[in-house]
Amino acid sequence: MNLLILGATGPTGRHVVDLALRSGDRVTVLARRPEALHDLADQVTVVAGDATSHNDVAKAMIGQDVVISALGRSTSVRADGLFTRAAAAVIGAAKEKGVSRLVWLSSFGVGDTYRSASAVQKVMYRTFLRNIYANKEISEKKIRSSGLDWTLVYPTMLTKGPAKGTYLAGDRLPMKGNPTISRADVADFMYKAAHSPEWIHRDAVITD
Predict the structure, then answer these.
(1) Within 10 Å of residue 73's Cβ, how many Cβ atoms?
(2) pTM for the full model?
């Protein structure tokens, strides 16, 4: 399969890249800092550009079967419009290039998932994560109405731990306290979702 991975230089995106390469997929990444992927120079196609640019995304999307977005804001609590601008670029480019499948990384607590969050989670989501979550919610409304075959992925708090392979996935999951999931397991789910129709037009809440 031909995969375009956005956010490939981030910790979750890099896990997705590694999974795809081990599985024999053809990988293209769009990166503002191509040098961050120098160790993969002979294994992936690197397109220099910005995920919020329609032209850059469209260039990278030529010949792709699936787009996987693992874009994030690292440790910042400000969205700076990243997710809305990237969603607009991806949707426009996908329609232009005839790519229909999109797997998009979000966060648990965004949109309708907030209603099933625990009391502990809700405090965090409506305080220091408020700005990022608001921007993510707007971007996901655009994705839902885009006509693409989307999957929106909502992991709980991310960790740097190894993949366990025993995580839970569902349209809705009960929450207690502040559960976590490793970025490696998130990448595993996203990669599998990209290769299966099971999660098309569905929200996927995932947690350990």
Answers:
(1) 16
(2) 0.96
Q: Are 132 and 73 in contact, with CB atoms under 8 Å apart?
A: yes
Structure-token pair, residue 121:
């989670």
Burial status of residue 198 (CB atoms within 10 A of its CB: 0-12, 13-18, 19 or more) = exposed
**What is the rounded distance in angstroms from the CA atom of residue 87 to the CA atom of residue 141?**
10
Closest by CA to 178, choosing from 111, 105, 129, 112, is 129
b vs e for 93-126, b when ≥16 Cβ sit within 10 Å of the residue's Cβ?
bbeebebebbbbbbbbbbbebeeebbeebeebbe
DSSP letter at 155? E
Q: Please, are residues 103 and 66 in contact by the beta-carbon 8 Å criterion?
A: yes
pLDDT of residue 141: 98
Q: Is 90 exceeded by the pLDDT of residue 41?
A: no
